[in-house]
Design a protein that fits this description.
The protein is α/β, with parallel strands linked by helices and 354 residues long. The chain is 55% helix and 12% strand. GO terms for molecular function: hydrolase activity.
Amino acid sequence: MTVSPDPAQPPQFPSNARDFLSHWTASRGNIRSFVEDYAAPPLGEKPQREAGKAAAEAAVAELFGIDIDEYVAGADSVHGAREAAGASRLTTPDPDIPVDPGAAAFFDVDNTLIQGSSLVQLAMGLTRQKFFRLRDIAPMVYKQAKFRLIGAESSHDITAGRQQALEFIRGRRVDELTELGREIVDKRMIAKLYSGTRDLAQMHIDAGQQVWLVTATPVQLAQILAERLGFTGALGTVPEQVDGVFTGRLVGDILHGPGKKHAVAALSSLEGLDLSRCTAYSDSSNDIPMLSMVGTAVAINPDRALKKEALRRGWIVRDYRSVRRAVRTYGLPALATAGISLASLKLRRARRRR
């Protein structure tokens, strides 16, 4: 005989830190609602807030080794990404593929999934639309060229670049950027995909696992790319918007370095993911915090520091690059000479056609 639950009894309180944090994160920290629904009759606001925060702090420390403020910033980024997408996920799983619950793959974008910088692609697109002048983005282009040649990514450069991008879009309409983002993804970024990395992502999709982009690029651009590739979703830097217009301020973290770890922690709570069964991919040592929190870490086209750390920890390393490999093989002077010779040849040919 089936016994119906007693409607007078409150829902069962989560039995472990993971379940507790999942409910708490979904409520966006609404401690009064959470405690009244799951724990006890209405209490005073201050005791509930203190009890709920203490429990959340303990759960976050136990599961992820971060503090509550870092976790909340990550949760803000995840909720901001969901609001930007208008849904918790961008795509629906193939019904013919059995779902592997609890498992997911997290991919960095720049120089991991695509060659070069998505932010530079966005800035160039904004330049073509006369949002600003080419000289305004020259420093950003220079920093990306430096990275392509020497494989050194500066955390300061990344943060400054994202702040610059937020300033570029301040006062612009969200739908304006979204339309431009589709053009940039379709005409420029898809052609720059590393086929090897895309194959790895498809492997996870075919295994019934979630696949997420986790990137410092604006979330609107990241979500367009993720949807085009059939990924589950994308977490990115979330620009604040009011009445459909960008304010120039952030929601949550800039998703770079530790910010990615904070967002993945919150996402795993909301999606019920077991991080020991998850995989993360990145090219940068700045993403070691995210790579260290999953069961399988893969260094894709790694910079020097990440390659050294990956080899020390026994992580998988994959290299799909060509420019830096050629620099190591032939040397920068030889490549520069070859580049100048090729440019001269093209110029002579163009003159002959006149």
